[in-house]
Batch of 4 targets.
Target 1
Amino acid sequence: MSYRWGPEARAVLDPGLRGVVRVLGGPGTGKSRLLIDAAVARIAAGADPESVLLLTGSGRMGARARSALTTTLLRSQEVGPCRAVIREPLVRSVHSYAFAVLRLAAQRAGGPPPRLVTSAEQDAIIAELLAGEIEATFRGEKSVVRAGETLSIPSNAPHSFTNASKKTVRLLCLCAPAGQEEFFAQVGVSVATRTTHPPQLDKDAQAASKKKAEELAPKYRTELL
């Protein structure tokens, strides 16, 4: 589908336009097409293709965008200095871009690359992470949470976890919004693997850990009861 752009839309297609531009429109009004045409216009004007990134919420418009940009790259070999060989995709979904950032971070740190897993494999990995059962106290009420079960705790709600059994317990704690995990990273004791038993702390070490937690708690808006 081709569009005849009005004056405001044509301003977006200006290769010299800089800054943040917000385009508002309902479904079918051509927002995605305008995004593609804006990228094509910049590449046709000589912009380095690797300086252009179309970041989409899903992969639905990916094929159309890639087709339009690929055509422009091929034409650029004949009419301008723009490179037709690039190292990274010009069109990415948010999820694909996030994965690329993680991959690059792992490469720079010298670690193994991240790996995408399927839903079934993900369930198996999470099941392997969890073990045993804990006694959770939430707003004064106690309950037993077993492996595979979920406990959702809103912010500012008093709560605690206790291993009331004699067996090993592993739980997966997700904090939203992010930031609270830094508190646990500083007051906790790191272990080599998820199955490594934590070291036994003597009374002095326990007192030092408690003191550190109390000192850091206000920074992370945490109240220790």
Target 2
Amino acid sequence: MADNENDSPPEQIEAELLARDGDTALGIACEQQRRAEKLGDSAAAAAWRRIARAIVPIELERLRRMLDETSGVTGSDTYPAATHVTVAADRDEAPKSDGRLGSHAGENAWSAAATASGGQIPPKVVRRAVTTTNDVERRRRGEPMSTSRTVPRITICGIPELGGHSAAGVTHVLSILDPNSPDPLEFAAFAPHRRLILRFHDVIEPQPDQIAPTREDVERLLVFGREVSETPEANLLIHCRAGVSRSTAAAALILMQANPEWPASMALDAVAAIRPRAWPNLLILEFGDALLGRNGDLAVAAGAIYRRILARDPEFRHQMIDAGRGREVIAAYRKAD
């Protein structure tokens, strides 16, 4: 095979590429697809997309074997990422949280998930989540917290759900909107609150007619998050269009900033408990990782979230690759160091 895959048409190297390590092969295919798209070569882009789609089932089988080998591992503070909160991330079968961190319903969802999982959710992961929700309730009652830092109460939703939170006592709102989207009318019914509005598309790579999130956007997000964490009795609502990608990434960063001693997996698992269909925007997480000095662990933890979604819905990988978000698919299959 040529040293540079660009030197050979995709059809000539497909068999050799499929024989490679799946993680490496998928990375090559997605990268070449992006390059072809940037050059306007639709035929080559389609060929690379087909190769990427052929690689993913191979990696899915590897993932299933890995899950079989690692499920039930509960003896350490460090767990194989793919085993975290397997049931709680399932749209159809998981017990549903009410979308809030720091609520009794959220705590009940974690406890029910632990029972329903048949032992696949490590008990310490459940205890950490329950401790987090209990800490918020203690803070609200003026009782000592079990950790030294404040965990703000967080709700994540999409625009269609905003009306249901107008009477929830929200003190802060982080709105992440498309650049040309109108301001949601539902906020007219909310009590006075502090609000930050960020505008960018839900993309992780530069695309024609799409505005990607920037480092400056994430800096503003974190400044706002620090204000929330320093406000007694703060009740933060974070929303984007669907409450799945941009808002969940923002929530994870705010939690990590408020609790720098947490492992990244704890913040991502907490977000998945609030919003089981979470697929956090990787570019937002990468900017936040750099600003918070996390040395890449947020991207690794996000890979576990992506992996759980793809294990449940393998076809979703095609939508993400076609949407230019192949790097997130790669993160789902990347082997832990």
Target 3
Amino acid sequence: MDRRLLLPVALSALLAAGCGGGGTSGPGAGTADIDSGATVGADAGEAGAEQSCENPVDGWAVTFPGDWYTNTTEVLDACSVFDPQPITLPEASEIPADLAIVIRREERPFADATSEDPAEERVSSEEATVAGRPALRVEVRATGQGLLDAGTVTYRYYVDGGDGSTIVAQTHDVEGTDFERNRRVLDDMMESLELF
């Protein structure tokens, strides 16, 4: 295929998958507050321009770094996984822990989703507001009783979906990832999160 056709074809595929501007009209459009004592998203503009995507099945839109990738609808609903490298998701398997950021909707109430889990030790916990909804930002360390190796640190947001569900967005500190960068990017993504 002629290389001059690759960009238009790639852009068409992204737009068909619900990415690249769906629901927002530029970086930061519709940004929601994250209310807490901490600085959220400090220094996370390092990637430059932003892009946005929408997950119409689970009901969110979010911005992410312009030089990152998100998934299409082939294995998971669009706009669920984000990484600075192209994403290939295995079918009928767990989502790899080395992907930079994963967002999902859990069909369980916020209070249940945010309760302590024996597979992890809570290191820190902070109440917040994301997309105008109650949220909890936590850092946890795996105990080895779950899927992650003992000692693996996860930085996670729980956002009350308002309908008995909970939005969970997280990044793991595993080999081959830039955990601190991914934390900053996740903070910025949660500032931009829109629920519908």
Target 4
Amino acid sequence: MKRHNRPESILIVDDNEFLVYGMKRFFRGDFGDVSVAATGHDAVTALRLRPYDVVTLDIGLPDIDGLELLAYIKHLYPESIVVVVSSRTDRKAKERAFTNGAFGFFEKPVDIIMLKKILTAPVPEKRYPIVFDDGVTGTTCYASDNSLCITSEACLEYGALLNITLSLPDSQSIQLKGRVVRTNDWIAGLPGSPDSAGMKQMFRVELVETPPLYQSLLGRRQHG
């Protein structure tokens, strides 16, 4: 898949029937082609037939090491976006996933809205630098009417209330206030961004205040 295009096909690899059912229904409006595989062997069979723009992958599959399957997918289709969706929380699994080419690592229960934003946002997504009131810096991954997804070297605590300064290219800045509502997901740096190497912890911030300039920024991005 060309990384500047919106993805059109997705393969959901997971043996949790309830989760697969929910994800399939949720993604149907954004992807023209939604396929599922309950086992690693089913996924391999599907992938031998054709590539998928996006693969969401549970690494705790009953028949195959999901991390080895991840490496196989990236070897077969280097341009496919592979996002791990897993109950594993150990850092070693995350590091191995990103070493094998994962674009993201989402812990279960998955924040499906955040996952959808990451997968369907225009790529390359514009990343704006941000500064918190204590001087700590970060970057945006996506922005919506009521939330921001950000990366930061700081370990932000769940429930923390943040004062955020978002810097724009024209030297303007936007003052935002929000609360951290998700802390346990990770993403690789986007190509061409300053943090394109390694894995970055992601935080979802629910915005409390959204000034007019912020709404104007969202409008420009949606139509630009």
